[in-house]
Amino acid sequence: MLFILLTIVFVVIRIMPGDPVSAMLGGHAPDKVIEAKKAELGLNKPLIVQYGNYLWQVAHLDLGTSMIFKQKVTSAISDKLPATIELTIFGMLVTLLVGVPLGAYAADNRRSGQDYLIRLFGIVIYCIPVYWLGLMFQMIFGVWLDWFPVAGRTSPRVFASTFEQTGLYIIDTLLINDWKALWDVLMHLVLPSLTLGLVLSGIFIRLTRANMLDVLRSDYILAAEARGIRHFPVVYKHGLLNAFVPILTMMGLQVSLLMAGAVLTESTFSWPGMGRLLLERIYLRDYPTIQGVIVIFALIVAFMSLIVDIIYALIDPRVRY
Amino acid sequence: MKENVLEIKNLHVQFPIHIGTVRAVEDVSLNLRKGEVMGLVGESGCGKSTLGFSILRLLRPPGKITAGEINYHGRNIGNMSQKELLDLRGRNISMIFQDPLTSLDPLYTIGDQFLETLRTHEKGIKKKIALERAVDMLKNLGISPNRLYEYPHQMSGGMRQRIMIGIGLILNPDLLIADEPTTALDVIVEAQFLDLLNELREKFDLTIMFITHNLGVVAQASDRITVMYGGRMVETGTAEDVFADPKHPYTQGLLASVPNIKLEQTELQTMPGAPPDLVNPPPGCVFHPRCPHVMDICKQEVPKSFRANGHMRACWLYK
Amino acid sequence: MKHSPTAAMGRLIGGFTGMGRKYGAEWWILIIGALIIGGIILMALLAPLIAPYDPHDQAAGPQLAPPSSEHLLGTDNLQRDVLSRIIFGARTILGVAILAALISSVVGISLGMFSGYSGGTFDKTLSLIMDSVYSFPGLILAITFAAMLEPGIMSITIAVAVIYIPTYFRLVRGQTLTIKEELYVESARAIGAPNLVILGKYIFPNVIATTAVVFTMNVGDAIMIEAALTYLGLGLPPSIVDWGMDLAMGKKFLPSGQWWLITFPGVMISTLALGFTMLGEGLAEILNPRLLER
């Protein structure tokens, strides 16, 4: 999968108009200078040779050097990746905490007023673009109510350089016991992760509800009720856990939605993550960085599906044996 | 006469759906005496399972008991609070289901499901004691205690059905409702299961309502038999009476359609017609469109229950 | 039977509520979705007639004026009328989203049918490619495409269309594989019907029914992607009126409190996407309740 995506992106960005040299030097540079620069970057070689060289590099876990800045692509990415990870983890947390309980509650109270209300919420929130929800949150909670900061990962007076180690600021601030900085970091996370999480929760409401309805119809639920088990454990211990198994199998697709949502959320909240990196470099036609970002996103998707498989095996004994 | 464990009086159960109201159970009255096995027989959709579920008040919405009452040792189940009902289920009345493959939660071990039942009904029970009781129960069922730590998918259908009974009996209920418990099992396992049930019945002093469409199983397992058709009771009597001398034309037809090992008749009979539409049941006797002895009165009036020597049949032939 | 308009209307309403009773909430979801879409399409078609100002008019009113009776939705920093831009912007987003969905469905359906029908290495290779693209975040691909192409309606349409091709491909290929094994197709092949005839006559009609629902949902999704791209400043030149671009522009005035600049374009994007999603959801529930759970 990684290889195929890489190939597509490699070819597409090179056959399309525009190149890093013109982007760097502007439109008025003499042809000679442009040619020289292209030769320096290896852009004058046939596409297939460039491609071969690049694959050789990637196979050695080297994503190359930026064509615009004197910077290894891996170091540009490792600067930005933790921000995206922090955002997506919290976004996912919000999604699960909102989507799964609401979906389960709706299924348990099928055809009630609450059910319709929750389903309506699910559909509507799904249709709200994540970047617009972000803007509205910024306006309401940032500008009008002034409860939360609306941009970046830290306040101007909190210097990340004083604690940065892993790049995951929550862990970093905990490591040096800087509670004030931790609070600042958390406050900055609130709006972006709420935005990202809420938009995705619509899908989880629907998934959870549909799977819960199937599960609640099954015999072991009836059997548990016939044994006098109280309604709450029947629905949430037996029902929800069983409903979660098919939900997990569909998580792969949600991960890519999460990534897409993260790119947009980063843009709205000036969040210095992978999405911002991609957008900055795409204008500059910085081929190696664009390719590198795509590789990392593909790796994240693959890694997440591995995690999902592990959780799957933990929950479902039928997979374990 | 022994005391009644369960009395059902003029029970009506209905399911209002968008095309009308399904009259799943109509005017059913039954008594279960202590220690007996009552076989409840009929075709699929005749209301026998619905009757079983209404005893535990486990009807799926929109199903409702619309009239009549169900008394367990004289207490009206219809008037019980939610808490009393939860107490009743599992502790006093247990139920086992048709498909043992789907009746146990696949994500928890057998032990977990035993413990959950015990802990729900006996608050604060020690884990060690609860486990000991589960092990004792497994011994009664002829199952190795190691199975407690296994998951349902690791066991055969027959074993899972035995475990279902075990979980059902762990709290010593005196009434067991068995809803087609052997339908999903093959013949040999079925025979073993019926033997086990008989054994447990004596050991635990059980009263059993045995719901099935299989006349052979009923004949083996029951003391008395109730035949249902189209949501109504058509005949009740001791197993011998009903089998030796079926009175209701439906029972007669039902028995005639069972292959007989004595080969008294060479040709297997089938009953003409289809089960009734329970949304718009035929007027009068629900069976009259299929009845070989249909009379004018059958098309107009619902037959009364006629009794002779404790053998009840709802048919105008016996007026 | 009466033929007066009121009787016809009565029958129509009777039919509607009858369907409502039969399918419950799903029917009403479908109707509301259709009404939203119909309303916005009408607005787009009649844009020159109903828009109070020219959307490009940089002297339509004062700068950054809040909603008033003269400018119902206010004006932007270039003194343009927000309402008029909303009305004209509907044309861009609807056109791009529907066209993109059409392109990706045509490409995806035909590739899926041929791939599933022919099988072999071709099928395997194509499936692998499609699966890879499908599992990757679509927006990120669309961003790459949109950024590489010259800004313009066609470019953004292609960028959006590309990411939905695998959706159709996978759906159609799976169905083709199933239908291929059906007896009537086997027998058609046995009597020597050409492959193209089999594809067109037996497989296509079966496939098209299920793709209808996906198509509707797809348009709803494409609307959000289109607006996302233009919000990020990709895909369209500034001369085109577009909700996503207006949103991006309004974002600059958020800290100073000009709420109308971001509120209205966003509401419109959400509403339009909601319309298509509700229509698709209603259709899916009525045609095939289990489709969406896959």
Structure characterization notes:
The complex is a heterotrimer of chains A (321), B (319) and C (294). Chain A has 321 residues and is mainly alpha-helical. Chain A is built from 15 helices and no strands. In chain A, helix 5 crosses helix 12 and helix 10 runs antiparallel to helix 11. The two termini of chain A are 29 Å apart. The model of chain A has no long low-confidence stretch (mean pLDDT 83). Chain B has 319 residues and is α/β, with parallel strands linked by helices. Chain B has nine helices and twelve strands. In chain B, the strands form two sheets. In chain B, strands 6-7-8-3-9-10-12-11 form an eight-stranded mixed sheet, sandwiched between helices. Chain B has a four-stranded antiparallel sheet with strand order 2-1-4-5, with helices on one face. In chain B, helix 3 packs across helix 4 and helix 4 packs across helix 5. The longest helix of chain B has 18 residues. Chain B is globular, with a radius of gyration of 20 Å. The two termini of chain B are 27 Å apart. The mean pLDDT of chain B is 86. Chain C has a single domain, classed as MetI-like fold (Orthogonal Bundle), CATH 1.10.3720.10. In chain C, helix 2 crosses helix 11 and helix 9 packs parallel to helix 10. The longest helix of chain C is centred in the middle third of the chain and has 37 residues. The termini of chain C are far apart. Chains in contact: A-B, A-C. Chains A and C meet through helix 1, helix 6, helix 7, helix 9 and helix 12 of A and helix 5, helix 6, helix 9, helix 10 and helix 11 of C.
